[in-house]
Amino acid sequence: MKNFELIDSVLRGNERDFERLIRMYESDIFRVVIGLLHNKEDAEEVMQDIFLKLYSSLSSFDRRAAFTTWLYRIAINTSLNFLRRKRNKVFWTELKTIFQFSSKEPSTEAKMMERSKHEIIKYAINGLPKNQRLAFVLTKYEELSQKKVAEIMNTSEGAVEQLVLRAKNNLRKKLSAAVGFETVQLSNKKMRADEKSKRF
């Protein structure tokens, strides 16, 4: 059964076909959402909102457009709205806390190294401008073609290519800065430890 046939069936009140529609796209949409939110619990919450919005707005779907493009837009907008509601967390403040472990904790440096890679990448992606983040997530996490991403973002393929290039450059800068900050922190800790050992 094709998308339009499923949609017509859902609009006639067939809930099983709506569940079928969800199963068809659930994995793809989840990859986009987790790529934007980087948090499984948040992503699962947003997924519920996405499919509720899908159900309530299905009758307004313009069939001249691709269903997947329309669904991706719902997913992206819902994810971004969720992020806006969580703006009380400041990007660099959170990044800084990654490296502030109590000196009394055992294996501080080991814990830091274990957490740092994933956390630094997450915060770096979240720190990108909106369109760069979307283009990067859709092409790298979802592995969509530039043509498909251009349709979803309502822009040209050339613009998508430029956004991805800028995103990569910005990520390179952010990650380099973060690695430099980590190196300084570790170096300072080592110096303090060496000085302390010399006293004894």
Attribute tags:
mainly alpha; 200 residues; 9 helices; 0% strand
Walk me through the structure.
The chain has 9 helices and no strands. The protein is mostly helical. Residues 90-96, 98-106, 181-191 and 195-200 have low confidence and may be disordered.
Task: Draw up the topology in text.
Elements: H1 3-11, H2 15-37, H3 40-57, H4 67-85, H5 91-98, H6 108-126, H7 130-141, H8 146-153, H9 157-199
Helix pairs in contact: 1-2, 2-3, 2-4, 2-7, 3-4, 4-8, 5-6, 6-9, 7-9, 8-9
Mean pLDDT comes to: 78
Task: State the total count of DSSP E strands.
Answer: 0
The major β-sheet equals: none
Distance between the termini: 78 Å
Order of helices and strands: HHHHHHHHH
Which residue ranges are poorly predicted, with pLDDT under 50 across at least 5 consecutive positions?
A: 90-96, 98-106, 181-191, 195-200
Proportion in β-strands: under 5%
| Percent helix range | over 70%
Nutshell version of this structure?
By secondary structure, this protein is mainly α. It has 9 helices and no strands. The longest helix has 43 residues, at 157-199.
